[in-house]
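User: Round two. Same drill as before: sequence, then structure, for each protein.

Assistant: Same drill it is. First protein:
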Amino acid sequence: MNNSFFMIGKINFRSNLFVFGIPLLMFLLLVTITKRSNLVSEISVFVLIDLLITVPFVYYLLIRSKDISNKTIIIVALLGSFIACSILPKENLKIYALPFVEVLVVFL
């Protein structure tokens, strides 16, 4: 058997695990920080920025040299917005989320 074939498959699996694992870990850490914090209303702006801008940007940096489509960044941004809607207080979300979503739609 050709060992180089199996090694390439192993590297691709680890590479994809790294590419999808880092944003997933970022999402999980943001959810954990928000759920355990007593200052949710004070940090909600920063968590929202991380969910809608930082995580998709890190994901873009991870996939730019891979064969993964750049359109998957939209999925990561939408996932961040769904997570933000579920973990952040509604009164803070209405004030800050709408401008971020509008900017995201304009640039896409």
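Second protein:
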Amino acid sequence: MANEEVTEVAPEAGERAAGPEPAQQDGGDRRLKRLRRQSFQNMVLSLGLICLGTFAVYFVMPSNSEEQQPTRAVEYEVASATAARAAPYPLVVPQGLPADWRATSVRFEPGGEYGVTWRLGFIDAEDEYAALAQADGDPADFVPSVTQRAEDTGETERIAGRDWARWEGPKYDALVLTEAEVTTVVMGTAPLGQLVVLAESLEVRETTQPAP
């Protein structure tokens, strides 16, 4: 019987390269994961820097709402009438102030720290603060407190026939009129001329007593 010829066919080069060896495939997967992880970390870092920059701008720059929001004016006609009836001294209010002055605060304390206390605050045309304060307590305590540690300069300002003492301080300057019944203080960040305007406008608040 004739011998059969056995022929072995070797795999072609294309067939050997069809799939990567396991070690090479694992190495490629690790590199891909590492690149993805680095890309994600870079994205997180970039977002963090953007957020920090946004917060920095927010804290440095004032908001538009704060810049544009006007100071709210208050009405003090009723409050002053009520306070005048209760106060044991002649309570004063300004009359005839310039139209561009705005009342921004009003308060009456029948049992305040410095006695019966009346306060009225304004903002003038230049957005400077000017206020009126009255109390029947000890002026040695009341005046330094209400003026934020201002001190008597020893000078006076003649207003409506009366001498007001001039006080100056790190926060407020003031004009102080000390009388037997009450101490009246005009103070604020406004310049002296504006404080004089407020002091000159003060008049006793008349009250209508109910009929018996």
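The chain has six helices and nine strands.

User: Perfect.
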